[in-house]
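Example with several molecule types.
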Amino acid sequence: MTSWLPSLITATPEEGYDLAVKLSRVAIKMTQPDAAVRDRLRPEYAEDAKSLIAVSQVIATHFATISAANHYWRDPS
Amino acid sequence: MTSWLPSLITATPEEGYDLAVKLSRVAIKMTQPDAAVRDRLRPEYAEDAKSLIAVSQVIATHFATISAANHYWRDPS
Amino acid sequence: MTSWLPSLITATPEEGYDLAVKLSRVAIKMTQPDAAVRDRLRPEYAEDAKSLIAVSQVIATHFATISAANHYWRDPS
Amino acid sequence: MTSWLPSLITATPEEGYDLAVKLSRVAIKMTQPDAAVRDRLRPEYAEDAKSLIAVSQVIATHFATISAANHYWRDPS
Amino acid sequence: MTSWLPSLITATPEEGYDLAVKLSRVAIKMTQPDAAVRDRLRPEYAEDAKSLIAVSQVIATHFATISAANHYWRDPS
Amino acid sequence: MTSWLPSLITATPEEGYDLAVKLSRVAIKMTQPDAAVRDRLRPEYAEDAKSLIAVSQVIATHFATISAANHYWRDPS
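Resulting structure tokens for the full complex:
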């Protein structure tokens, strides 16, 4: 079975950011596994300024973790 | 007696993420030990966008800790 | 006089988690020293989903600190 | 194709801060890709004290990451 | 003139916690320098569960900083 | 042109704290550049307990960054 999270290592900061977004979304799915409920809630946060900011806080926290994992991509490969 | 948290070390990032989810849930149980009350509260947060985002923030914080504990799973075993 | 916090070092991750819970509670006591007021507030947060999540965020932050203090209990003693 | 985030390394702390602001904004775009909706939401947070503070919290988190990436710009080049 | 914050180093974890509480209070004073206004606001947060939890989050963040500064008081002096 | 943030290095912890306060304020300015709007919002947060606590959380996050930058001012110069 393929893992949804095989590694925290990414080639570039941009890919690291995309992974941070993914990590923030998985938490929602794990707490609310019902896709129908999540679909119903989506406009509630995607069109609400405070919720969007809260989502970006979660992303920022994951991006900190991923950046540390990648030694901040200091040495371009 | 078996510990519910014998170690922060996991084999993979995905297992580390699962552990982060578990850690976030234990805190709720310790603050509200009554299972009946928790069951009553569950829809209150599992169907509320802001609460789901707040839960994912807690998970993100625990995932940062667990990732550091595992040296970010940089060296696949 | 005995200190309520003689050390951040614990034997196991589980004890470290218990200490994180304790640290989160002490902050409440220091800001609201009146036990009668705290007792009155308790149902307000122990039966409110958003408050329970917020408490678990505080615990997560303290657990990060305690985990680092213990080198993440990487070497079982 | 040019990356919107080629590197976390900046010449100065001030440029690092600007990058933190940029990172906080990208998260909003990724969660709400519709520019028209974002434009509609903008006054909702730019003229609301609590939202502005929440945005600055996200920026602070990204600035911590970027500062670590740059070794806190300790050695002026 | 004496500094209100001469050092982050404390002899014990407990003193470090007290310093974290102090740091959290100074921020309030700097944003609202008027003591009369602060006195008026005090019951608003000291008797509100959500505010007390938010204060303890700030304390937890400062305690993380102070703990790192003190190498987590790993070596008792 | 002078930078508003030439360095994260400060002589003392107290100056570091002042810099953290400054960093938290700049974020507000960057998100809401209109000084008239900011002046209108000021009483909204300076006289609101929850907002003051939220501001102090942002300051705590920046103070963590600045403290790390300064090696926690462990060696008095």
